[in-house]
Amino acid sequence: MAAPSAAASAPKSCPGPDRNPRRPRFAVPQGACDTHVHVFGPAAQFPFSPARSYTPEDCTVEDLFALHEVLGIDRVVIVHGGAHGTDNRATLAALDRAPERMRGVAVIPSGLPQAEIEAMHRRGMRGCRMSTVVSGGASFEHLPRLAAETRDFGWHLVLHFHRAEELLDVERELVDCGSPFVLDHLARITAAEGVGSEPFAAVLRLLDTSRCWVKLASLYRLSAEPYPHRDMLPLIHRVVAHRPDRILWGSNWPHPICPVPMPNDGDLVDLIPLWILDADHRRLALVDNPAALYGFAPTDD
After folding, report:
1. Is 5 inside a domain boundary?
2. Would you put residue 38 in left (φ > 0), alpha (ψ -120 to 50) or beta?
3. How far apart are CA 98 and CA 189, in angstroms?
4. Do residues 131 and 105 make contact, with C-beta atoms less than 8 angstroms apart?
5. Of 104, 128, 139, 168, whose CB has the highest number of CB atoms within 10 Å?
6. Sign of the CA dihedral 290, 292, 297, 298?
7. Is position 228 within any domain?
8. What's the CA gap between 277 and 211, in Å, rounded?
9. pTM of this structure
């Protein structure tokens, strides 16, 4: 078999986010947490991985702070970006800027010394992510070992699926692993697959373990309709009704590898009351659930 061409294997260039987020009409509650963002670079200080599958623009922690000032977001979870591979320095440096209101999810291989995981934990890491979407990180083959190696620190596992059917392949491992786990992006179930699909049935089964959390983020990728993506509502409403105490919300800023028109993050915040109809459930998803999973201090109100 011929080797792939340089052009075929070169990382894809990703456009940056909308740099002019509008202030949303929906006011999030005090202590609201955006549980899914990435920071990239600056590449001159934190080089991208040579094994990456995409090359983003610099999207720094300063850019993130400015965004959340507009959106009214108090807390944030930085999910280490695939462009940096398993070199977590960019995310750790960002966490050091505001440790009381920031947490992180690392991308690490199994087999790291416990002292290295402990050092990341002290700086705010609370989970580790595996992906079949981006290269240069950790695959699902690492799942049982990462669960064992991070369990004593209380870390959760994050599953980033390329296709929803992949959930069925790891469902038994997730049940057996003993660790909390997060299904990124509603387990990548599309509107076309819907609530009658086998992956969605698996999501409901896993939620019933009480160790599963579902993240509502990047759902614009899963819709066949333009904003406000109403074809996603049956999936969202069903999963929220099933376990409102296990729902998380995230913006997915700065929206890497975005296959649709780049969203404005103010528009995404305004989807929250459409997705989560009950005010008490919105508070769970935005404040209480992230506080429980990531270890934030209680809010004053």
Report:
1. no
2. beta
3. 34
4. no
5. 128
6. positive
7. yes
8. 24
9. 0.95
CA angle at residue 233 from 228 to 234, to 5 degrees?
160
In a domain, 17, yes or no: no
Number of domains the chain is built from: 1
Q: Which of 127, 131, 169, 170 is nearest to 149 (CA)?
A: 127
pLDDT tens sequence across 219-262: 999 999 999 999 999 999 999 999 999 999 999 999 999 999 99
Euclidean distance between the first and the last CA atom of the chain, given in angstroms as a whole number: 63
CA distance 208 to 121: 28
Ranges of the chain with pLDDT below 70: 1-9, 300-301
Would you state the pLDDT for residue 10? Answer: 80
Write the CA distances from 300 to 29, 165, 248, integer angstroms.
11, 42, 20
Task: Classify residue 15: in a domain, yes or no.
Answer: no
112: number of Cβ within 10 Å:
16
State the CATH number of the domain containing residue 98: 3.20.20.140
Residue 35, domain extent:
23-294
